Every structure is written in C-alpha cells, then in structure tokens.
Amino acid sequence: MLVLITYDVSVISEGGQRRLRKVAKICQKYGQRVQNSVFECVINTTQFAQLQMELLASIDEDCDSLRFYRLGDNYKAKVQHIGVNNAVDIEGPLLF
After folding, report:
1. Strand order in the sheet with 32-35
2. CATH class (in words) of the domain with range 2-72
3. From the centroid of its chain, how far is CA 14?
4. 56 membership: H or E segment, kind and range
5. pTM here?
6. How many other CB atoms are there within 10 angstroms of residue 66's CB atom?
7. DSSP state at residue 14
8. Rounded Cα distance, 90 and 65, in Å
9. pLDDT, tens digit, 9 for 90 and up, residues 19-72
10. Is 62 annotated as a binding residue?
11. More confident residue, 1 or 95
12. CA end-to-end span of the chain, whole Å?
C-alpha cells in the first residue's frame, strides 16, 4: 500500500533539530522524500506499524505532529503530479 507521511517538527523547542533529522531518517528507511516534510512509502501493514512506532518514539507530541494518509494498493489512480518530477519510481527496475 502507499502511505503518504507528512510531519511538522518544532525546531525552536529543545532538541527540535535532532528530532527533525531523526524523523527524516526514519522516513527515508521506508520510502522517498517528495517534498521537504513529505514522504511516499510503498509498504505492507507490518512495515506501516513498525514505521508508526519508530516515528511516535521520535517526536514530542506536545509540539510536533505527524499525519499518515493510507492510499492503499490502487494508489496510482489516486496520485496526480504536475511540475518538476525529481522522484524515483520506487516500484520500477533498479539500474546501476
């Protein structure tokens, strides 16, 4: 399934820069960055649960926020992109 993750980490709070870097690193393990604080992840249900646990352990719920949009398996019909596309097709063939 495709999961869209967005986050807002307060960098003015104590440890904010560290939390911001940690959230981005966790998201990069599961998917690809499509905007500054937006990641697309093609993952299964187990991976989604693990991702959520890692992210929840990394934020301060009093000043940070996470949003998860589960677009399902038929996501190609639900996503439209206009403009510059620097993203890699994560389900396409990997060429070295």
Report:
1. 32-35, 38-42, 2-8, 65-72
2. alpha beta
3. 23
4. helix 45-58
5. 0.81
6. 18
7. T
8. 26
9. 999 999 999 999 999 999 999 999 999 999 999 999 999 999 999 999 999 988
10. no
11. 1
12. 26
